[in-house]
Amino acid sequence: MTTATLAPAWTDSKRYLWMLGFTVMLLPLTGVQLAQATGWSIFYWFAPLFIYTVIPLLDWMIGTDASNPPESAVPALESDQYYRYIVYAAVGIEYAVWIWAFALIAHGGLNWFEQLGLAVSAGGIAGVSINTAHELGHKTDPFERWLAKIALAPVAYGHFFVEHNRGHHVRVATPEDPASARFGESFWEFLPRTVIGSVKSAWDIETKRLARSGKGPWHWQNDNLQAWAMTVVLYGALIAWLGWIVVPFLVVQAIYGFSLLESVNYLEHYGLRRQKLPDGRYERCQPHHSWNSNHVVTNLFLYQLQRHSDHHAYPTRSYQSLRHFEDCPQLPSGYASMILLAYVPPLWFRLMDPKVVAHHKGDMSKANIKPSIRDEVIARYRAQAA
Amino acid sequence: MRKWRCLICDFEYDEAKGLPEEGIAPGTRWEDIPETWTCPDCGAAKTDFQMVEVTGA
C-alpha cells in the first residue's frame, strides 16, 4: 500500500516580520525614550542614526534572501487582507508619532539641538512614508489611493502620487525621466533635477488629464492640488495649535524626508537605459533596467521596494509577492548602505561606475549618461568592449 | 470602436488603431487581446484597464 505524501503548503516565513514596516514609524518615539533614559540629547536624532548605522549593520550581518513565493501562492497572498492592514497601520502610526514629535518640539522644553534632531527624525519617518504611499498609490482601490495622498501630506510631497505612476513608470530608465539617475551624475546634481522635474511633470500630467474633459488645471479634481491641500491643512492645523515655532522645523523635516526618498530614486536606475525602437517609442521596461537588492532587513523595512525589477514589470503586484530574478543588476548592499555611498560621490562613482560599465559590456552608447560627458564616456569604454 | 485606459498610468488602447508594433492589428477588440498582455507603458494587467466613457455630443 502506498501513502501519498502531500507537499507542505507554502507559508510566508516573513509574514509577521512585515510589521517592521510600521514599527519604523516609532523611531522618533524610541529616540525620545532613550534620550530621557540616558540623558543623552543625541538620541533625539535616533531616526537618522538608526537608518544610517543600525540598518546597514543588520543588512551586512543578516545578508540576502532570494527566495520567492511560488506563483501558485500569489493569489492567496494578494487577497490576504492582513498584508494591507499592516500598511494602513503604518499611515496611522506615522501620523500619531509625527504629530506627537511636533508637540514635543513646541512644548517639550527642548534645546535647539534636541528640537532639530527630533524634527529630522520626524522627517525621516515622513520620508519613509513616501514608500508607504508608493505601495498604496499603485493600487486601484479608491480608499488605498486616498490613503496614499494622506501618507504624503507630512512630507509635503503630494505630487508624487501623480508623477510616480504616470510619469516615472512611463519614462523609467530614459534620459527624459527626472527620477532616473544618469551615469556620472552625483546624487547632489540629481537632487535638484528630480525635485524640480517631478513637480513640473506632475503638473503637466494633471493639466493634460483635466484638459481631456475640458477642465483647466486649477480645478478641485487636480490630484496635485488635492494632495498639496492636505499638507496645507495639516501644517495649518499644527501651526494654529502649536504656534509659529514649528514652521522652520516643518521646512527642515520635509526637505530631509523627500531627499531621503530621492536618494532611493537615485540608486534604483543609475546609468540604466531602455533602448529606442525604430518607431521612436521606447522598449518595454525589462528586468535589466533596474538595480535590485535582496538584503532582507532593508526589504522588510521598505516593503521589498528593493525587488525593483519585478516592481516595474508588475507594478500592481503587492509587496509580499514580489520576486527576485536571476541576472538582474544587483546592488552590492541594501539601500540603507548605498544611500551613504551616494552622499559621497567619489565613493559612489568608484563602486558603481564599473558595475554600470560591466553591465553594458563596455558599450556605453546603451547607457543613460550625463549629457556633458556622454561622448567622452562612450569613447573611453569602447576600447574595453573591443 | 472603443478605447480602454490604463488605471495606473493613463495609457490608452484604441481598438481602431490597435498596437501594430506589438502584433495587435488595428480593429482588434479588447476581448481578443491575450489576457497575458500588459500595458506597454507601465506593465499593468488588462484587469487594470477601464473602458473610456464617450463624452460630448
Q: What do these coordinates show?
A:
The complex is a heterodimer of chains A (386) and B (57). With 386 residues, chain A is mostly helical. The mean pLDDT of chain A is 94. In chain A, α6 packs across α11. Chain A has helices spanning 20-23, 27-38, 46-62, 74-79, 81-107, 112-137, 142-152, 160-171, 187-212, 223-242, 246-268, 296-301, 308-313, 335-343, 345-359, 374-385. Chain B contains no helices and 3 strands. In chain B, a hairpin with a 5-residue loop joins β1 (3-6) and β2. Chain B starts with a strand and ends in a 6-residue tail after the last strand. In chain B, 21% of the residues are buried. Chain A binds chain B through residues 138, 140, 165-166, 169-170, 205, 209, 213, 277, 279, 281, 284-285, 312-316, and chain B through 7-11, 21, 38, 40-45, 48, 55.
Quick summary of this structure?
By secondary structure, chain A is mostly helical.
Instruction: Count helical runs of chain A.
Output: 16
Q: What's the end-to-end separation of chain A, in Å? A: 65 Å
Radius of gyration of chain B (CA) equals: 11 Å
Q: How many strands in all of chain B?
A: 3
- Give the count of helical stretches of chain B: 0
Largest interface: A-B, 19 and 15 residues
Brief descriptors of the model:
A: mainly alpha, 60% helix, 0% strand, B: 57 residues, mainly beta, three-stranded antiparallel beta sheet, 18% strand, globular
List strands and helices in order, with pairings.
The complex is a heterodimer of chains A (386) and B (57).
Chain A: H1 20-23, H2 27-38, H3 46-62, H4 74-79, H5 81-107, H6 112-137, H7 142-152, H8 160-171, H9 187-212, H10 223-242, H11 246-268, H12 296-301, H13 308-313, H14 335-343, H15 345-359, H16 374-385
Helix pairs in contact in A: 2-6, 3-6, 3-14, 5-6, 5-7, 6-7, 6-8, 6-11, 8-9, 9-11, 11-14
Chain B: E1 3-6, E2 12-14, E3 49-51
Antiparallel strand pairs in B: 1-2, 1-3
